[in-house]
Amino acid sequence: MSNIPAHAPCQSYCDVSALEAGHVRVPLDYIVDTAKAGETRELPSLSFLLRHSQNGDIFVFDLGIPKDLQTLSPAYHERIAQMGFALNIPEDAADSLAKGGLDPTDVKHLCYSHIHFDHIGDSRPYTNATFLVGAAAQPLATHGWPADSNSLFSQNLLPEGRTRFLDPTDWPPLGPFPHALDFYGDGSLYIIDAPGHMPGHINVLARTSSDGGWIYLAGDSGHDRRLLTGEAHIPVHQVYGCAHRDKEVAAAHLARIRALMETYPRVRVLLAHDVPWYEVNKDGPGFWPGVIDSL
């Protein structure tokens, strides 16, 4: 296993803030094998704001759930109903940015962990952003709805000329991860190939201090923190199937994240639907305009 690079003199890093971006109530036995049949849980759909300490770049990771659900395809509405998902979006990522005086037009990079409905938000106001998406997701959107009436994914999601499709094939290893991109070229933020959940799924590993603190934004690598601790495992639901496209590959990636946590105690790992962290920190200083404490 390669090492995470040590900090350099005058090391750049990112201030990271959580953004409220909606909630979804899901069948719990769809995401962990320890749940009882019929048990549900409301999950936050977190978005994250990252601000580079030196170049001033404003980078957003995921947008949560769109307030305007009509931006979703008819097939997605059908899917949400079939799964019994209950949505609650009192504020979206744009509303959360406004709490600290930022507008969607201030965002320079908008990175989607993947293009499921509870991560894509409403992309339309982010008119100055370059969109960053795993390359394997490109055909899903390119050949999506409305051209394909059965597609979950919208052709309008990713703006032409402002989308960068990230192919991890030639990215070098970093820590326990086989493929990582040094996004700014200064060791402050890495985009991590995170296979298993769905095509193009990516994570972010960012420095949160100049002296060795990190945060790992794991997206939907797991939908429950107990999958990270080993207290639960990925189920295959008898009706809904598996929450991941490839269960074994997803489990292997979770094991890499666990290795990161065990090897580097100054790495804070957060899931997109991190209920324990959210319950402790909601309305607290980790949400913009505050900053998540660096370990």
Automatic annotation (TrEMBL):
<dbReference type="GO" id="GO:0046872">
    <property type="term" value="F:metal ion binding"/>
</dbReference>
<dbReference type="InterPro" id="IPR036866">
    <property type="entry name" value="RibonucZ/Hydroxyglut_hydro"/>
</dbReference>
<protein>
    <submittedName>
        <fullName>N-acyl homoserine lactonase AttM</fullName>
    </submittedName>
</protein>
<keyword id="KW-0378">Hydrolase</keyword>
<feature type="domain" description="Metallo-beta-lactamase">
    <location>
        <begin position="44"/>
        <end position="273"/>
    </location>
</feature>
<dbReference type="Pfam" id="PF00753">
    <property type="entry name" value="Lactamase_B"/>
</dbReference>
<keyword id="KW-0862">Zinc</keyword>
<keyword id="KW-0479">Metal-binding</keyword>
<dbReference type="InterPro" id="IPR001279">
    <property type="entry name" value="Metallo-B-lactamas"/>
</dbReference>
<comment type="similarity">
    <text>Belongs to the metallo-beta-lactamase superfamily.</text>
</comment>
<dbReference type="InterPro" id="IPR051013">
    <property type="entry name" value="MBL_superfamily_lactonases"/>
</dbReference>
<dbReference type="GO" id="GO:0016787">
    <property type="term" value="F:hydrolase activity"/>
</dbReference>
